[in-house]
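Lecture 7 notes: from sequence to structure.

We start with a single chain of 231 residues. Read the sequence below before looking at the structure.
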Amino acid sequence: MPESKYRAKVDSVAPQSARMSFEQFESCFLGVSLENKNFTPEKLKALAEWISRRFKYCVVLVGDSIHRITLETTKSVKPEISLIEGLKMGSSFIEENENIFHDFPGKTQFTFETCSQIQESEDYKQFYQYLRDFFESDPNFRSSVESFGRKYHSRKTTNLDDILLKERIRRSCEYFLEEFAIFACLQKRGLSVMVYPGTFSTLTEIVNGEYPYLFKEIKELIVVSLHFKTR
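Now the structure, written as tokens:
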């Protein structure tokens, strides 16, 4: 397979103490955000190359069901069809890109999993409920998640009125809490290293120990943030 025109490089590792040790793990999961410029075929190839040099197993986690919230908040898709659209887009993503991950036989075994599959589990429901309760009861955590959502929407759109912005931030908070519960499910299964071409401010705070009352399955995650360079 020809080399990608991009090369994936480590941007940061959280917690910092895992910077020199995360490659000792045999497995990881790669988070995929739909309709995101960091997941074009060329960039996916670079991500797969990077992972194949370090891990034996990798779950490619496709954010299908959670993408419904992005569709609702940024494209005004109605709630009754946003989930259907998100699931369709997730299936299409896998169909169109799975060949990229099959070009590394003997190096890394890549498998695909969707957020919608994980959200059916009892573990997910328990983790999500705990996160919701913690979000309501801990003002520092709530402020961090809301700030993360505010930054996201300030990058996407400008000149939103306060009411609409507050609603979008509220929905984004739901997105992040669902996402964190999904990550915890994977960590519980032994997938302790998360790889993502981007950063998660609140998640970084969690794994750095800023919220000691959260459950260990999210606190013990190792988050490897990557960026791309052209060759």
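Residues 6-120+184-230 form a domain with the Rossmann fold fold (CATH 3.40.50.11710). Keep this in mind for problem set 3.
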